[in-house]
Design a protein that fits this description.
single chain, alpha/beta, pyruvate-formate lyase- activating enzyme, 7-stranded parallel β-sheet, 9 strands, 13% strand
Length: 259
C-alpha cells in the first residue's frame, strides 16, 4: 500500500535525528527508538545533526522530493536545512518542504530560495486552532497564529503553498479552520486521521487518556464519512489514505503523485 509520505514524494530526506516540537503522536520518534537512534523517548526533543546528510551531493530524483519527513525545520537546524534544500534544487529537483513552521524560519527560507521558488512547494502542518489542544499534542511547536502567518507570508512571496491537517486534532472546528486558511493555499489541503495511536501515543496521565479518547471518538467511521461528505466538493481538499480506506476512495497507484 502506498501510504504516509509516499503519497507525496518519491524520496524522503532528513538532516537531524530528533525534533524539539516533541509531538505526542510522532511516528518518527517511535521509529528512532526501534532503530536505536535514541535511547529513550525523552531523548527525541534534543535534536542531533547528521552531518553526512547535510553535505551529501544530491541527484535528480524521478519525482517530487520531501524534506524533511522525520523532523521540523527550526532555528537550531535552519542553516543545515537550507544547505540540503540548496543541493536538492541545484540538482533540478522539485522539493516539498514540510514543517510546523516558525515565521522567522520561513521568512529566511523564502528570501534564500526566492529565485528557485518554482521548484518549491511548502506544506505546513496545521492541525488545530485551539491553543490548549496544540499545547497538549504539539508542546514545542509554534502556535496556530504563527503557522497561519507563515502560510500567508509564503503565499505573498510567490511560493506554492499547501497544508497538512494530519492528524485532525479538533474535528468540530475543522471546517471553520479550513475556511480561514484556504485563501492562502494555492495547491492543496490534505486531511488525515491520527494513525496507530496505540503504538505511538503514551497515555501517561488522566489528561492524556481523555485526549486520546476524544481523538478516537472523532475518528469513528461515521464521523469520518460525515466529514468527507461535507468537504468532498471542496477543490483544495485531498484525503490521506487513512480516510480513503474509510470512505471507499481508491488508494494512490504510484509513489509521489501528491493527488
Amino acid at each position: 500500500m502506498i501510504r504516509g509520505t509516499k503519497e507525496w514524494a518519491v524520496a524522503e530526506i532528513n538532516c537531524t535525528v530528533g525534533c524539539p516540537h516533541d509531538c505526542r503522536y510522532c511516528y518518527a520518534r517511535v521509529a528512532a527508538l526501534e532503530k536505536g537512534l535514541i535511547n529513550s523517548a525523552a531523548d527525541w526533543s534534543q535534536s542531533r545533526l547528521v552531518d553526512e546528510e547535510v553535505h551529501r551531493d544530491r541527484p535528480l530524483y524521478p519525482g517530487q522530493v520531501m524534506f524533511p519527513t522525520a523532523h521540523d525545520i527550526v532555528e537550531e537546524n535552519l542553516d543545515e536545512a537550507l544547505e540540503v534544500i540548496d543541493r536538492l534544487v541545484a540538482a533540478g529537483n522539485k522539493v516539498l518542504i514540510v514543517s510546523k513552521p516558525s515565521l522567522s524560519c520561513i521568512e529566511q527560507i523564502c528570501t534564500r530560495l526566492y529565485q528557485r521558488r518554482r521548484q518549491i512547494l511548502f506544506r505546513f502542518t496545521i492541525t488545530a486552532r485551539d491553543c490548549d489542544i496544540l499545547r497538549f499534542w504539539e508542546p514545542g511547536a509554534p502556535a496556530y497564529q504563527e503557522r497561519l502567518d507563515s502560510l500567508r507570508l509564503a503565499r505573498e512571496r510567490g511560493f506554492q503553498t499547501s497544508v497538512s491537517i494530519e492528524p485532525i486534532l479538533e474535528l468540530k472546528d475543522l471546517n471553520d479552520m479550513i475556511g480561514e486558511i484556504e485563501e492562502f493555499v494555492s495547491h492543496s489541503i490534505w486531511v488525515g486521521k491520527m494513525n496507530r495511536i496505540e503504538e505511538r501515543v503514551w497515555i501517561d496521565s488522566d489528561e492524556a487518556a481523555v485526549e486520546v479518547e476524544r481523538i478516537r471518538s472523532d475518528q469513528h467511521d461515521q464521523k469520518i464519512k460525515d466529514l468527507y461528505n461535507s468537504l468532498r466538493d471542496h477543490p483544495l481538499i485531498r484525503w490521506k489514505e487513512s480516510i480513503k480506506l474509510v470512505v471507499g476512495l481508491p488508494l494512490a497507484s504510484e509513489t509521489g503523485l501528491d493527488i
